[in-house]
Specification:
By secondary structure, the chain is of the alpha+beta class. It contains 2 helices and 4 strands, in the order E-E-E-E-H-H. The strands form 2 sheets. Strands 1-2 form a two-stranded antiparallel ribbon. The longest helix has 11 residues. The protein starts with 12 loop residues before the first strand and ends with a helix.
Length: 78
């Protein structure tokens, strides 16, 4: 599963592990991506999305129809 949210667009960020002696090694901060299935009344079918938790909260606040309409307008495959 790709580590990108389809609604917010958040992806992995990069940084360092810093030891006690202050040596730095590369690391990756992955977002909390969940696979979520929604019923979309305007399309008349279920849609499965890869979402961060913030993306799930966005859908709860604005509604699935609004968010799906914006994804289709951006050209995202739904």
């Amino acid at each position: 599963m790709a580590a990108h949210c389809q609604v917010t667009g958040v992806g992995p960020q990069y940084g360092y592990n810093v030891s006690h002696s202050h040596r730095r090694t590369k690391r990756r901060f992955d977002p909390n991506i969940q696979k979520k299935r929604y019923w979309v009344p305007s399309l008349g079918r279920h849609v499965t999305l890869n979402l961060s938790v913030k993306g799930i909260k966005t859908i709860d606040a604005r509604g699935i129809d609004t968010v799906i309409a914006e994804l289709i307008q951006k050209g995202e495959k739904v």
